Backbone:
């Protein structure tokens, strides 16, 4: 009898964790496991704010997929171009694939909410190359300011759209990086302006208000300005337009605009034949897509309701990795003709960094700030490496400067 094919799309937290669990549970005789990913490396999406600010190198945040998969897995480096669950066909730049079990883990895309000019003129922290672009763009602006005879100080203004998790973590890194950049490019630091623009009336929604206050104070001390409750309504090549009141607008000239507000699932989902909302699929309790018993969805492409709280779980690496373990087990169950298991989320808390030496967090029923929270953040980052690649990968890529 032909062994079943398990096709996993995307080697992010969700896809790669599914595969490293499957390879331990399923032998080569039992099934063929195929992993398809755009690049031959995995990148730590949760470290992209550091790559974007230039506080770590892009290479620090990635590792070869071959270093964590074994001979049970066939890795194909290819871009998924189209998927259709009705015909069970996945078209990629390396040809067409079919499957007995499919896992969709294609991650997120930035959501621009139709705001004029954002797609064209704002940068983003979506993958390792967009993050690298942010870093190099800022450095270019700073370098050219230094060389210009007639100086345009707006080159040294950085606008960050969004005061959610990604925006705040990026601002924290910028707070550390700006003094270094000023030194590198002979720029008086008072010329630099970093402004965070947020439409919602608060920073870091969902976080404890006391911790949020701490974060805002610490970032303000690093020179970060906030414009809260003021939607960014347009981006142009020169800067951004901000709505300050009913009929009141302000235009801020800026050399760099980074959009860090809002994510949606991968747009390939929208033509896959599965119902979705903002390219996210409302999965069943065992992480399968509605109406398709052979299709699982993991990570940011999945939408899962927290029934207790009456709102969806936020898209995080933490939940993606837990879902992946459940999916690997459920594929094994289906192969054996057994019932699937319900996914139960074990919320271990959240830690938001404010640079390499400061953070806020809640975990184990306690609140943390400062160096303790920052050390905790590094433990969280190292744990993600450990869960995928064990001690070897953790020693190679981990963060060990705790204080
Ligand atoms: P990803 O990890 O993004 O992986 C998707 C994979 O699919 C990538 O390898 C990509 O290359 C591949 N891919 C995409 N399209 C294609 C295609 N067409 N063909 C082939 N391959 C493709 N979460 C936390 O829990 N804690 C944090 O502290 C945290 N901090 C964050 C900081 C930042 C700056 C950002 C941006 C996010 C942060 N998150 C955090 C959220 C977290 O990173 C995401 O929820 C998580 O990455 C989702 O995992 P995923 O597997 O769904 O997608």
Residues:
């Amino acid at each position: 009898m032909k062994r079943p094919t398990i096709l996993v799309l995307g080697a992010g937290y969700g896809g790669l964790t599914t595969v490293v669990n499957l390879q331990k549970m399923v032998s080569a005789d039992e099934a063929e496991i195929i992993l398809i990913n755009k690049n031959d490396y995995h990148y730590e999406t949760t470290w992209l704010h550091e790559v974007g600010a230039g506080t770590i190198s892009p290479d620090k945040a990635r590792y070869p997929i071959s270093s964590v998969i074994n001979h049970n897995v066939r890795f194909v480096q290819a871009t998924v171009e189209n998927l259709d669950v009705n015909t069970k066909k996945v078209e990629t730049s390396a040809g067409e694939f079919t499957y007995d079990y499919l896992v969709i883990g294609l991650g997120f895309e930035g959501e621009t909410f139709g705001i004029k000019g954002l797609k064209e003129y704002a940068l983003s922290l979506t993958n390792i190359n967009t993050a690298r672009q942010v870093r190099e763009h800022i450095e270019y602006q700073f370098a050219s300011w230094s060389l210009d005879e007639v100086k345009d100080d707006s080159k040294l203004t950085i606008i960050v759209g969004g005061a959610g998790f990604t925006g705040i973590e990026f601002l924290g890194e910028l707070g550390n990086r700006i003094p270094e950049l000023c030194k590198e490019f002979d720029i008086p630091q008072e010329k630099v302006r970093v402004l965070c623009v947020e439409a919602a009336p608060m920073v870091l929604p969902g976080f404890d208000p006391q911790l949020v206050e701490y974060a805002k104070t610490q970032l303000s001390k690093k020179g970060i300005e906030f414009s809260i409750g003021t939607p960014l309504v347009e981006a142009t090549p020169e800067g951004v337009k901000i709505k300050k009141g009913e009929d009141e607008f302000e235009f801020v000239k800026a050399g760099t605009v980074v959009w860090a507000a809002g994510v949606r699932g991968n747009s390939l989902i929208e033509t896959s034949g599965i119902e979705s909302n903002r390219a996210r699929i409302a999965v069943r309790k065992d992480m399968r897509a509605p109406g398709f018993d052979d299709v699982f969805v993991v990570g940011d492409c999945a939408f899962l309701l927290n029934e207790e709280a009456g709102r969806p779980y936020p898209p995080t690496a933490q939940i993606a990795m837990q879902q992946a373990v459940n999916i690997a087990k459920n594929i094994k169950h289906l192969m054996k003709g057994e019932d699937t298991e319900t996914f139960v989320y074990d919320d271990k808390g959240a830690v938001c960094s404010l640079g390499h030496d400061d953070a806020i967090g809640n975990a184990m029923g306690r609140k943390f700030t400062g160096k303790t929270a920052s050390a905790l953040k590094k433990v969280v980052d190292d744990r993600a490496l450990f869960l995928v690649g064990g001690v070897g990968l953790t020693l190679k890529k981990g963060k060990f400067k705790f204080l």
